TrEMBL record:
Record Pfam families: fn2, Lectin_C
Membrane topology listed for this record: Single-pass membrane protein
Disulfide bridges in this chain: C137-C163
Coiled-coil stretches: none
InterPro entries per record: C-type_lectin-like (IPR001304), C-type_lectin-like/link_sf (IPR016186), C-type_lectin/snaclec_domain (IPR050111), C-type_lectin_CS (IPR018378), CTDL_fold (IPR016187), FN_type2_dom (IPR000562), FN_type2_sf (IPR036943), Kringle-like (IPR013806)
Protein name: Mannose receptor, C type 1b
Domain spans labelled C-type lectin: 190-302, 325-441, 466-581, 610-701, 728-841, 965-1076, 1112-1225
Family matches, as Gene3D superfamilies: 2.80.10.50, Fibronectin, type II, collagen-binding, Mannose-Binding Protein A, subunit A
Keyword flag DNA repair: no
Places the protein is found: Membrane
Fibronectin type-II domain boundaries: 132-179
Higher taxonomy: Eukaryota, Metazoa, Chordata, Craniata, Vertebrata
Length: 1249
């Protein structure tokens, strides 16, 4: 299994005191999550009482959120409270306190070593599966009152190890611990390779890579179309692959497999700084795209049996000028020819253009054939047969590539042939008809030809010549000092390496050897901060392996095999083979050039020590590492490099580079760039590793005397209005950051008196592209006829176009809309349903809005025993119903008998259900089951109650009494007032603003609103009920009667409109109001939520850890990242045992928002159970009341389904054809054991529903 920690004992060498001693035994501690120190035996963490001198250090229950349990190292052996200058001091055995000063008792070392605590590291362990979304395991964690410091198999039916991702396991989030077992992985039917799709995870690229490595795998690499086809269709999500942008070689696979096949999406890879990692995107047929590595996405792990390294071949024989290496003969020919002509010439010599099969071949070619940095030489690699798939001309397997940065060209279909060039001999694809030199290769002869080239002149037998030096590969293993003595005895020294070519030569000699290491002459034994060669002091070239040299102190050896040529620091007492070196006989060293007066540095630049370079600190703005590098290169230099402690001091900083021995720590595997402290206070001049996307000041260096290219300043040529519109060249533009489909984006623009942008000139295109805060694709205003884009949506002609290469490209014949990309502002086509940011454009600011005069309510009353409605009175006459509101009025007064029918009559043909030929009449029901106020056909001979109608009597006063409706009584207040005034008015009457919490009371309130032909305030104001809608009397809302597009997210108070619909409004507007008195008491809400979450039917197994479901209060939630349409999501939730989630209050909103935030880089939003009826009313699928909303500002409300944004939790809408992830919800239930079958418990999961 993966080792993610290393325990140790911390002691003080001078006193022998132990930091953690229990029962007279010095206990082991280890680093764990969030910079804490865990004592595994006690399952507690090291902490202090406070951030003050003298605070005693003890063991506490672990809390990852406590700053009093977080530690860091300083100056090797000092341990401090994190971000504090408070040092751990051992005052006695097992007694420690915090001190402000440093003395002998502050130095703590790992027992048996001279290293401090940070020499041992902790690696985050990323959970697989479960419901943890790939988050790292939290150690220790508490589960069912037990503490666990490692993965456990408790309650796992398969006995597989799992962990929690939170200390207290309150939200029950867990995942399986990584294992090298490939059980459950997908197996490729022909190659036997293993694939693991982690679609429910959300990790940064480096975390995803670490997760795969923890399982003995790597992120996916794709080296041919068959692998690409196999991955296609496996997932509907964007997923990380092993694509990574290397500063020297450009795009490559992180597992070292050859980069020989290209499947980039149009416009990708993007040149944007930081877009250094690659994904497969199902939205573009699984083509590859580049993204910032800090995005959090799912990922694909890949594992295949390691390919056997080729054995080092026997040295054959070659006639001059051919050079022998590893069973082959090689010849460098500088005759300028096309690729085809060079290939023919090789054929004439019974050979082929060279195939470079591994790093050893590559090293041989650039170090032993006379290759020069100015050469450009054809090799056998080409994609002439299949565009985007590179093969060797001799049909040998492509197992190695070494591309130059920026190659192979992603979008070129003419650069079909490959050459080797430059100082490092990297590869570039070029047009095959260009003329260059070439390298040929053929099989060597097993017998001497008598005409071999003399390769080792000036060297003793057994020694190998390279340049002016002879090298000897030691045949026995020795310690570093023993090897040094052996070399010295033969008038040589342990080899130094001055440049890449020297290193490449050594790789060609030892890279294929079975031994793992060979000693070089480099070490830092005397000073951990400075490496020196045994034969000289200065180090001008290094080639470290990953995570080297770190804080290691020792001697340096060169690796072989897959990592051939890289350098590791090893204990000097290790026994390894070695490489000796001496000047060849007759060779002379090139004399140093005569000293000349060094040129001066430019103004405001300073010289770096004795080097012929100058540096400058730029602090007027901040940039990412990539942006800073590009800036330095643009002015003719590069980011600063420092090669000694002296140079560090010359810059004005006295500290050694890595003052804190926990740096560089590559925390969470995401810190890949270095910074220097320049604050002149604590640790000034020390270095730290940080995330490369961090914004900081920067230091450039440039060769002294070199002309500094002037920086181009872009002056603002536009104005910004108070409401955020940009004014440029007579038009106004608005950058809408919310992602929307075209229809929604255009509606958003039109609501603001604008339309989607039209672009009519190069200047306008550049203006919009240069708005740098707009780093994502934005929608244009194009309309397609499937063949050409002939017009803008507003009908205007197309007078300017800026299509990218291969655009417009109709891959699926549904790309009818266009976007402007951040890649130089070029345009791409997309399906109009895809969501992008957008730009609105208008010619001027809109006019002010007008207002409408209010309605005057009617006057008058009714005689005794009659009830008033508008200008009619109900009584002893058969009623005629003439419009819809009259049907509403009828059932308001039918509350005395619950299942009676009341006869009504018809006088017009406004409804379909009128008198029929069969002499049927209509009755109105008061039955709650069939629906209050519904009309039912009855025989006119049936007997029922009835309602009469007459005109209102203007001489009668308007009634002001309370009217009983079951246990409630209501009174209309005919004076208009604000909501607050209405509330106080009711309270003075011993009442409260009305709570229409059932059909009867809602119907009566609606009647009163109709009666006054205006709005009436009711008892809802979310400013008084925790930010969401509840009745102020303490009642939860169980039924809602919202109007179209209600409730508004920004309006807090609620009135019932004349049509009976609840409507939100500003509380300071004046309306009529309704007071209510009630005999009922509002129920209290429970704080106890027992029960378990269900098992996922798709992975049926029984543990008390619901598989994928996460509990919160009385419900369980399942986040599904597969992107499908809303109706399909609803059906899938039912398959899982739930429904699309409703969100009923702010706490539930916060829980769901936190659950999906980690997916914001891969998913814009997730479907929830909100849908809009044909009448425009929003409802929850599980029938919960819509009393809480969290609509995103400016959301388009015309679509039919609701979703929640992953970035900020705002609610948006979508159409039926939109594909999104989704969230399911189900009530908690009890797990009931039904019976035992063959000794196994059979269980079911029950809920109240």
């Amino acid at each position: 299994s993966f080792t993610f920690y290393s325990p140790f004992q911390l002691t003080n060498k001078d006193t022998g005191f132990c930091l953690v001693k229990i029962n007279n035994k010095c206990n082991e501690i280890r680093w764990t999550t969030d910079d804490r120190l865990l004592v595994p035996l006690r399952k507690k963490c090291l902490g202090v009482q406070g951030k003050s001198v003298g605070s005693e250090i003890n063991l506490y229950e672990c809390d990852e959120k406590s700053d009093l349990q977080k530690w860091q190292c300083r100056n090797g052996t000092l341990l401090t409270l994190k971000d504090q200058e408070l040092y751990v001091e051992l005052t006695a055995d097992t007694t420690a306190v915090l001190s402000k000063t440093v003395g002998p008792n502050n130095h703590l070392t790992i027992s048996g070593t001279s290293s401090g605590a940070c020499a041992r590291t902790y690696r985050e362990l990323f959970a697989i599966g479960g419901n943890a979304a790939g988050l790292p395991c939290m150690f220790p964690f508490q589960y069912q009152d037990q503490w666990y410091t490692d993965c456990t198999a408790v309650d796992s039916s398969e006995k597989s190890l799992w962990c929690a991702v939170e200390t207290k396991y309150q939200s029950e989030r867990w995942g399986n611990c990584p294992s090298t077992s490939k059980e459950g992985w997908t197996i490729h039917p022909t190659t036997g390779a293993y694939y693991q799709l982690n679609t429910q995870s959300a990790l940064m690229w480096s975390q995803a890579e670490a997760s795969c490595k923890q399982q003995g795998a790597s992120l996916l690499s794709i080296t041919d179309p068959h692998q690409q086809a196999y991955v296609t269709g496996k997932s509907g999500n964007k997923l990380w692959t092993g694509l990574i942008l290397d500063p020297e070689h450009g795009w490559m696979w992180s597992n070292g497999r050859p980069f020989r096949y290209l499947k980039w999406d149009s416009g990708h890879p993007l040149p944007n700084p930081g877009h250094s990692c690659g994904i497969v995107d199902p939205a573009v047929q699984y083509s590859w795209q580049s993204l910032p590595c800090s995005k959090k996405l799912g990922y694909i792990c890949y594992s295949k049996a390691a390919e056997t390294l080729p054995a080092q071949g026997m040295t054959g024989f070659c006639s001059r000028p051919w050079i022998s290496y590893n069973d082959h003969c090689f010849h460098l020919n500088r005759t300028q020819q096309t690729w085809s002509d060079a290939q023919k010439e090789c054929h004439n010599e019974r050979g082929e253009l060279v195939s470079i099969r591994n790093v050893e071949d590559q090293s041989f070619v650039i170090s032993q054939l006379g290759y020069e940095s100015t050469d450009e030489l054809w090799i056998g690699l080409n994609d002439r047969k299949t565009e985007g798939l590179f093969d060797w001309s001799d049909h040998s397997t492509v197992s190695f590539t070494s591309w130059e940065f920026g190659n192979p060209a992603a979008s070129s279909d003419i650069n079909d042939c490959v050459l080797i060039r430059g100082q490092n001999g990297n590869w570039a694809d070029r047009v095959c008809e260009e003329k260059h030199g070439s390298i040929c290769m053929k099989m060597s002869s097993s017998k001497p030809t008598g005409d071999e080239a003399q390769q080792d002149a000036g060297c003793k037998t057994g020694w190998i010549r390279h340049g002016s030096y002879c090298y000897f590969i030691g045949m026995q293993t020795k310690t570093f000092d023993e090897a040094k003595d052996v070399c010295k005895s033969s008038d040589s020294y342990l080899a130094d390496v001055s440049n890449r070519v020297d290193n490449a030569f050594l790789v060609s000699q030892v890279g294929l050897r079975p031994e793992k290491y060979f000693w070089l002459g480099l070490s830092n034994r005397e000073n951990i901060d400075q490496f020196v060669w045994t034969n000289r002091g200065s180090v001008t070239f290094t080639h470290w392996n990953a995570e080297m040299p770190g804080h290691s102190q020792g001697c340096v050896a060169m690796t072989t095999g897959y990592f051939a040529g890289l350098w590791d620091v090893l204990p000097c007492t290790n026994k390894q083979k070695y490489i000796c070196k001496h000047l060849a006989e007759g060779a002379v060293l090139t004399p140093a050039p005569p000293s000349v007066v060094s040129p001066l540095c430019a103004d405001n630049w300073n010289r770096i020590g004795l080097r012929n370079y100058c540096y400058k600190l730029f602090e007027s703005s901040k940039k990412t590492w990539f942006e800073a590098r590009d800036y330095c290169r643009a002015i003719g230099g590069d980011l600063l490099s420092i090669h000694s402690a002296d140079e560090n001091q010359i810059l004005g900083y006295s500290m050694t580079p890595y003052i804190t021995t926990d740096e560089p720590n590559n925390k969470n595997n995401v810190e890949s760039c270095a910074t220097m402290r320049t604050d002149k206070r604590r640790e000034s001049g020390s270095w730290n590793d940080v995330h490369c996307e961090t914004y900081l000041e920067w230091l450039c260096q440039i060769r002294a005397g070199k002309r500094i290219e002037p920086k181009i300043f872009h002056l603002t040529n536009y104005n910004e209005t108070g409401d955020g519109w940009l004014e440029w060249n007579g038009a106004q533009y608005f950058l809408n950051r919310q992602t929307m489909a075209v229809e929604d984006a255009r509606s958003f623009c039109q609501r603001n008196h604008a339309d989607l942008v039209t672009i009519d000139s190069e200047a306008e295109s550049v203006f919009l592209w240069k708005r740098q805060e707009f780093v994502m694709d934005v929608l244009l205003h194009y309309l397609s006829d499937f063949i050409v884009f002939s017009s803008w949506m507003d009908g205007s002609s197309v007078v300017f176009q800026r299509w990218d290469e291969d655009q417009p490209r109709f891959q699926r014949n549904d790309e009818n809309c266009a976007v402007i990309t951040p890649s130089m502002g070029f345009w791409h086509v997309y399906n109009c349903g895809y969501e992008h940011r957008s730009i609105c454009k208008r010619n001027s600011a809109p006019p002010a809005n007008a207002t409408v005069a209010p309605t005057v309510p009617p006057k008058g009353g009714c005689p005794q025993n009659w009830k008033q409605f508008e200008s009619k009175v109900r009584g002893h006459f058969l009623k005629k119903i003439v419009d819809l509101f009259y049907s509403t009025e009828q059932y308001k007064w039918m509350t005395k008998g619950k299942k009676n029918h009341f006869l009504i009559g018809f006088a017009s043909y406004y409804y379909i259900l009128y008198y029929s030929v069969s002499k049927e009449c209509a009755v109105m029901t008061t039955d709650l089951t069939s629906g209050i106020g519904k009309w039912i056909r009855k025989s006119c001979n049936d007997t029922n109650g009835y309602v009469c109608l007459r005109n209102v009597d203007s001489s009668q006063p308007t009634p002001v009494d309370y009217v009983n409706v079951f246990n409630d009584s209501f009174k209309l207040v005919p004076q208009k007032m604000t909501w607050d005034a209405a509330k106080k008015n009711c309270e003075r009457d011993g009442a409260q603003l009305a709570n229409p919490r059932n059909q009867w009371s809602q119907n009566f309130v609606e009647l009163l609103a109709l009666q006054v032909k205006g709005a009436v305030w009711i008892g809802m104001n979310k400013l008084e009920t925790g930010g969401y809608f509840r009745f102020i009397g303490g009642w939860r809302i169980t039924e809602t009667y919202w109007g179209r597009m209600e409730p508004s997210p920004h309006l807090p108070c609620v009135y019932v409109a004349e049509d009976g619909k609840w409507t939100t409004a500003e509380c300071n507007r004046t309306e009529y109001s309704i007071c209510m008195k009630t005999e009922d008491v509002a129920p209290t809400e429970s704080s106890d939520f027992p029960g378990f979450c269900p098992e996922n039917p798709e992975t049926p197994r029984y543990t008390q850890r619901g598989d994928g479901w996460i509990p919160f209060k009385g419900y369980c939630y399942l986040t599904c990242t597969d992107e499908i349409e809303w109706p399909d999501a609803s059906a899938n939730c039912m398959k899982h045992g739930g429904k699309l989630a409703s969100i009923e209050d702010p706490s539930e909103q916060e829980f769901i928002q936190n659950s999906i935030k980690q997916f914001q880089d891969s998913h814009t939003s997730f479907w929830i159970g909100l849908y809009r009826t044909h009448a425009g009313i929003w409802r929850w699928l599980d029938q919960a009341a819509v009393d809480y909303t969290n609509w995103y500002e400016g959301v388009e409300m015309r679509n039919s389904y609701g979703s929640i944004r992953a970035s900020d939790g705002g609610w948006t809408t979508g159409s039926g054809y939109h594909d999104r992830g989704y969230i399911c919800k189900t009530p908690k239930g009890e797990i009931i054991i039904l019976f035992e079958l063959n000794g196994q418990e059979c269980v079911t999961h029950c809920t109240d529903s």
